[in-house]
Amino acid sequence: MVGQQMISPQQCQAARALLGWSQADLATRAEVSRATISRFEKGDSLDLADAIAIRRVMESAAVEFLKKGDGESSIRLAPRACSPGYADGRKTN
Questions:
Q1: Residue 4 placed within a domain
Q2: How much is the CA Rg of the chain, to the nearest whole Å?
Q3: What pLDDT, in 10s, does the model give residues 45-79?
Q4: Backbone torsion region of residue 88, taken as left when φ is above 0, otherwise alpha when ψ lies between -120 and 50, otherwise beta
Q5: What are phi and psi of 86, to 5 degrees?
Q6: Exposed end of the chain (fewer CB within 10 Å): N or C?
Q7: Any residues with CB less than 8 A from the CB of 82 and at least 6 apart, and which?
Q8: Would you say residue 1 lies in a domain?
Q9: Cα–Cα distances in Å, from 85 out to 14, 20, 57, 76, 80?
Q10: Other C-beta atoms lying within 10 Å of the C-beta of residue 8
Q11: 78, exposed or middle or buried, with CB in 10 Å at 0-12, 13-18, 19+?
Q12: Distance between CA atoms of 6 and 65, rounded to whole angstroms?
């Protein structure tokens, strides 16, 4: 992924929890199978196209994937998503 880091299984699980999405919700939105999400979260690798789709759908819902200087990774909701007028990472008014 040019210009982007791959996400980890732990980031995927944390992002889903932050968004209140089930594996099935993420799979539907990313247009991958639920089994793909399940296998990835258990540590299996992803096809590049699936990895890109999963990351993009989470980012479109306002999840930010962060890489700290010490190599640690984390996630957060983008500040705009926490503002009034936003729901599920999208502006509502």
A1: no
A2: 13
A3: 999 999 999 999 999 999 998 877 776 778 888 88
A4: left
A5: -120, 140
A6: C
A7: none
A8: no
A9: 24, 18, 20, 18, 9
A10: 15
A11: middle
A12: 9
Name residue, tokens 């980890």. Answer: 8
Is 53:36 a contact under the CB 8 Å cutoff? no
Within-domain flag for 37:
yes
Number of alpha carbons in the 13 Å side-chain half-sphere of residue 4:
14
14 inside domain: yes
43 lies in which domain range? Answer: 9-91
Q: CA 67: distance to chain centroid?
A: 14
| Statement: residue 81 has pLDDT above 70 | no
Indicate the residue type of 51.
A
Longest dimension (CA), the chain: 40
